[in-house]
């Protein structure tokens, strides 16, 4: 595997997220706390985050593993956090649900559905008022469930009227916890709502990492040039359940099969293979490299101690 | 010393802090409209009208506070804070802790509450204890213009989210305010506006004046009452309450808010625990009823514990045989 390219890097980035989350699922089977995985949504995280740069800030949610890893988070510190260890990004206080890493610009992760949307305009306002790095923008990741919260509209309205440098990224993964989104909204509701607020809106195949990356890069460039917000809806699918364990007995098998056939990792690998830029040995080498990183991360996390009960009330007040 | 109303004292503190620190931001529904002078002095970036949407006002303040600004948000009437509760309680109150101390939320949320205008329960609800119960938040409710100014200055400078309640019945009451620009009152320190030997009256907000009126009336009975104004409800100045109780041995807690799980209950629990060795009589609470505030001025006044009720309660306690030998 001599060749490196952004496309191959995106494939490896998605493989890393998949391997990390499969490791969390395995840990759960061994008794570790459950998690909300983003298996099947890796192209959204990698495509958007690679369109951002170090000046930018990211807000995410309970399904954050992909965003954090795409931003360069250390999988060892992530697993340590999920296991409640002191070397986790939050010192073992977050668990899997609200992992922030300010050092990476991943701030104010919220597991209240829509909480990230309520805070994102404030982060973008501070950026606009000169409190962030010059030229930086803010990206907020949320799902189709959060789009049903009232604060979705409040955040879009404020961002448009205050011309905030904010990229809204809706990962429409078809499921709102245990309810299919078409039970709660019409098919094209999200982009139509966003268009009603009067900002640039793109709807993209969220399982095609190159399409995601291209659209995100265009919208980010527009925000940097013009200042105002933009909206990206990514059509994707939550391949595993809402929260481990989840037998997904409520999921239509035909729907699930149709989306598995569009798996974002397999599509990127096939694209590169068809272009003659990746062979079976190359893919195996990438997978081996990722597996080794996750194995090392797991060993690091498991060696990290638990915080003592005497630290229970630390960090409540500044 | 100048004389001004509590409302004017709040505006003075805001002006002083905005002049002192360029990261202080003032926003809410109508703040720029009502304070064109502040827009002129500090700029439209820092004095902002917002949509009439409390959830996003508060959420924006939380995001901005974690990103280098110090927002002061005017949520108008305290019941509107329930729309802002997610951002204040779940985000500002918890994300410092859950992130292992990565973020601070230096913000102040202003809300008016209490009897005085007969505006009814959707504009007047003394819900301060709801926020006292939420970890990560501080809660202030001043009783005088001077305290409002000094405590608001401290709240704006504090690194934590502060809920700052303004008692509607006090907004237009004048009082003396020191001229010194740097009159900052630390959060978490109670005041003792009247010293006494026989009974301690603990209160906050407008019922501090009720207690002072009762204390004056009790003099005729030969009862010397001490009045403690909590000023900050969280952190609570437990030492000040215990100090006073050690002196008097009797405690009446007075609040306009309803009683169940309220601040007065917390003070009573403090007395029943660490204050127990000092008690010479049962602890009494006088509170508003478990009822929404009526949109009727006369009925609304009946929610507020009166000086007469406080005096009757004190006379009953002083007549109680001592508990301890």
Automatic annotation (TrEMBL), chain A:
UniProt entry keywords in alphabetical sequence: Oxidoreductase, Thiamine pyrophosphate
Single GO biological process annotation from the record: pyruvate decarboxylation to acetyl-CoA
GO molecular function: pyruvate dehydrogenase (acetyl-transferring) activity
InterPro entries per the UniProt record, alphabetical: DH_E1, PDH_E1_Alpha_Subunit, THDP-binding
Domain Dehydrogenase E1 component residues, every copy: 14-309
Names of required cofactors: thiamine diphosphate
A Pfam family it matches: E1_dh
Domain of life: Bacteria
Presence of the UniProt keyword Oxidoreductase in the record: yes
Record has Zinc as a keyword: no
Official protein name in the record: Thiamine pyrophosphate-dependent dehydrogenase E1 component subunit alpha
Organism: Parasulfuritortus cantonensis
Taxonomic lineage from the root: Bacteria, Pseudomonadati, Pseudomonadota, Betaproteobacteria, Nitrosomonadales
From TrEMBL, chain B:
GO terms, molecular function: oxidoreductase activity
Co-factor(s): thiamine diphosphate
Pfam families to which the protein is assigned, alphabetical: Transket_pyr, Transketolase_C
Name of the protein this chain belongs to: Alpha-ketoacid dehydrogenase subunit beta
Sequence ranges assigned to domain Transketolase-like pyrimidine-binding in this UniProt record: 4-173
Xref: InterPro entries: THDP-binding, Transketo_C/PFOR_II, Transketolase-like_Pyr-bd, Transketolase_C
Keywords attached to this entry: Oxidoreductase, Thiamine pyrophosphate
SMART domains the record matches: Transket_pyr
Superkingdom in the source lineage: Bacteria
